[in-house]
Amino acid sequence: MTLRIAEIFGPTIQGEGALIGEPTVFIRAGGCDYRCSWCDSMHAVDSAYRHAWTPLSDNAVWDQVRDLSGGRPLTVSISGGNPAIQDFSGVIALGKAEGYRFACETQGSIAKPWFAELDTLVLSPKPPSSGETVDWAAFENCLTAAKGCRNIVLKIVIFDDADYAWAQQVAKNHPDLPLYLQPGNPEVDPNQPVDLQVTTDRLLWLIEKVTGDGWFTPRVLPQLHVLVWGNKRGV
Ligand SMILES: C[S@@+](CC[C@H](N)C(=O)[O-])C[C@H]1O[C@@H](n2cnc3c(N)ncnc32)[C@H](O)[C@@H]1O
Ligand SMILES: Nc1nc2[nH]cc(C(=O)O)c2c(=O)[nH]1
Ligand code: SF4
Ligand SMILES: [Mg+2]
């Protein structure tokens, strides 16, 4: 299988959601079926960056991950773009044979059989502020495809009150999925510093919404990598 890869980097720490803080190597797939207005990874989405996406075989991808991790098994995070456009089953098989674990981040718009091979599937359906509309039938197909994956979680980005209300409805419809909320980052230019006060104010706003409403099921987390590195790429 030949994969279109925007970047492979690490080891770093997983900055978001269920595996926050866990050492990981990222594989960022090139290409996405969405165009979220606030996407922080447009270099893996917009076809203007296509020239920088490298066609790599499963083995070539795996060799890079092994080199970056020094051959010591860790959790590999497959993100993008939408990695579900492509077939990562070969890479996952190569890694599992060497004792590595796999997590994948996807918006839940395309289901793939290889979801069942993952240790963690992060489904991140997009709220109204993204400008995208969720196809809930496709989302359900992702859940079905992932049967066998022990850790399926929801991660929702919240920019405003409408996103927050939407997340509450999603939580109601999926009470069995652990839910992680993260404030949206409005500053996504990799060449501009992030204002940490703005970042923590948005986190505080979200924490106060959740606690004020007595909504005690989600976990509220910052993007740890943004606090540490801002919008720097490759971390
Ligand atoms: C870049 S996306 C790639 C994977 C997949 N396309 C998805 O959206 O889940 C990885 C995660 O970053 C989140 N994200 C993207 N832009 C963001 C922003 N400006 N602020 C906060 N989270 C953001 C997405 O919602 C998603 O949970
Ligand atoms: N450290 C770190 N954590 C992340 N969690 C999700 C990321 C992503 O862009 O998919 C990401 C990323 O790019 N870096
Ligand atoms: S689905 Fe993910 S990668 Fe695609 S545009 Fe939205 S945030 Fe960016
Ligand atoms: Mg990111």
TrEMBL record:
<feature type="binding site">
    <location>
        <position position="81"/>
    </location>
    <ligand>
        <name>S-adenosyl-L-methionine</name>
    </ligand>
</feature>
<feature type="binding site">
    <location>
        <position position="79"/>
    </location>
    <ligand>
        <name>substrate</name>
    </ligand>
</feature>
<keyword id="KW-0949">S-adenosyl-L-methionine</keyword>
<dbReference type="InterPro" id="IPR058240">
    <property type="entry name" value="rSAM_sf"/>
</dbReference>
<keyword id="KW-0460">Magnesium</keyword>
<keyword id="KW-0408">Iron</keyword>
<comment type="subunit">
    <text>Homodimer.</text>
</comment>
<keyword id="KW-0671">Queuosine biosynthesis</keyword>
<dbReference type="InterPro" id="IPR024924">
    <property type="entry name" value="7-CO-7-deazaguanine_synth-like"/>
</dbReference>
<feature type="binding site">
    <location>
        <position position="28"/>
    </location>
    <ligand>
        <name>substrate</name>
    </ligand>
</feature>
<protein>
    <recommendedName>
        <fullName>7-carboxy-7-deazaguanine synthase</fullName>
        <ecNumber>4.3.99.3</ecNumber>
    </recommendedName>
</protein>
<feature type="domain" description="Radical SAM core">
    <location>
        <begin position="19"/>
        <end position="217"/>
    </location>
</feature>
<dbReference type="GO" id="GO:0000287">
    <property type="term" value="F:magnesium ion binding"/>
</dbReference>
<feature type="binding site">
    <location>
        <position position="39"/>
    </location>
    <ligand>
        <name>[4Fe-4S] cluster</name>
    </ligand>
</feature>
<comment type="similarity">
    <text>Belongs to the radical SAM superfamily. 7-carboxy-7-deazaguanine synthase family.</text>
</comment>
<keyword id="KW-0456">Lyase</keyword>
<dbReference type="InterPro" id="IPR013785">
    <property type="entry name" value="Aldolase_TIM"/>
</dbReference>
<dbReference type="GO" id="GO:0008616">
    <property type="term" value="P:tRNA queuosine(34) biosynthetic process"/>
</dbReference>
<comment type="function">
    <text>Catalyzes the complex heterocyclic radical-mediated conversion of 6-carboxy-5,6,7,8-tetrahydropterin (CPH4) to 7-carboxy-7-deazaguanine (CDG), a step common to the biosynthetic pathways of all 7-deazapurine-containing compounds.</text>
</comment>
<comment type="pathway">
    <text>Purine metabolism; 7-cyano-7-deazaguanine biosynthesis.</text>
</comment>
<dbReference type="InterPro" id="IPR017742">
    <property type="entry name" value="Deazaguanine_synth"/>
</dbReference>
<feature type="binding site">
    <location>
        <position position="36"/>
    </location>
    <ligand>
        <name>[4Fe-4S] cluster</name>
    </ligand>
</feature>
<dbReference type="GO" id="GO:0051539">
    <property type="term" value="F:4 iron, 4 sulfur cluster binding"/>
</dbReference>
<keyword id="KW-0411">Iron-sulfur</keyword>
<keyword id="KW-0004">4Fe-4S</keyword>
<feature type="binding site">
    <location>
        <begin position="13"/>
        <end position="15"/>
    </location>
    <ligand>
        <name>substrate</name>
    </ligand>
</feature>
<feature type="binding site">
    <location>
        <position position="41"/>
    </location>
    <ligand>
        <name>Mg(2+)</name>
    </ligand>
</feature>
<feature type="binding site">
    <location>
        <position position="32"/>
    </location>
    <ligand>
        <name>[4Fe-4S] cluster</name>
    </ligand>
</feature>
<feature type="binding site">
    <location>
        <begin position="124"/>
        <end position="126"/>
    </location>
    <ligand>
        <name>S-adenosyl-L-methionine</name>
    </ligand>
</feature>
<keyword id="KW-0479">Metal-binding</keyword>
<dbReference type="GO" id="GO:0016840">
    <property type="term" value="F:carbon-nitrogen lyase activity"/>
</dbReference>
<dbReference type="InterPro" id="IPR007197">
    <property type="entry name" value="rSAM"/>
</dbReference>
<dbReference type="GO" id="GO:1904047">
    <property type="term" value="F:S-adenosyl-L-methionine binding"/>
</dbReference>
<feature type="binding site">
    <location>
        <begin position="38"/>
        <end position="40"/>
    </location>
    <ligand>
        <name>S-adenosyl-L-methionine</name>
    </ligand>
</feature>
